[in-house]
Amino acid sequence: MNTLIHHAPLDDIFRGFFVRPVELGNTGDEAPQVRVGVKENADGYEVHAELPGIKKEDIHVHIDGPVVSISAERKLETELKDGERVLRTERYYGKVSRSFQLGQDIDEARAGAKFVDGVLKLSLPKKVESQATRLVIQ
Questions:
Q1: pLDDT tens digit string along 88-119?
Q2: Which of these, 47, 34, 48, lies nearest to 102 by C-alpha position?
Q3: pLDDT interval class at 80 (50, 70, 90)
Q4: Which of 5, 18, 60, 107 could be disulfide-bonded to 127 (CB atoms 3.0-4.6 Å)?
Q5: pTM metric for this prediction
Q6: SS3 for the chain, per residue?
Q7: Using CA atoms, how far apart are residues 132 and 6, in angstroms rounded to an integer?
Q8: Apex CA 125: angle with CA 105 and CA 98, to 5°?
């Protein structure tokens, strides 16, 4: 049995070219990542999320029972000028989000958040579980 293989060198050059963006070096303006650390104690959870280069007003935290969602948006515009000539203008707009589920519901009324030096610190107290009550039938 004979097998015919067709090989076109130009196909290999352009394979995937229009599928993935081309990287032209690391400019430092790439999309931010959310690195999260979670610690649990008897009263609740302490979450540290690294959000470098993001402004406090562009961070949103949403709590739904035991699920915590952190989202942030970064806007960056740079312009390089030589006198009155604009040599290069770059703009970056990106959004990043991270959700995770904790072991117990969070008491949203007592939860707190601080943002210092690119680190979001969340204090998430556990919701007191209500005790089951037994109804007396009369």
A1: 777 777 888 899 999 999 999 999 999 999 99
A2: 47
A3: confident
A4: 107
A5: 0.63
A6: CCCCCCCCHHHHHHCCCCCCCCCCCCCCCCCCCCEEEEEECCCEEEEEEECCCCCHHHEEEEEECCEEEEEEEEEEEEEEEECCEEEEEEEEEEEEEEEEECCCCECHHHCEEEEECCEEEEEEEECCCCCCCCCCCC
A7: 72
A8: 65
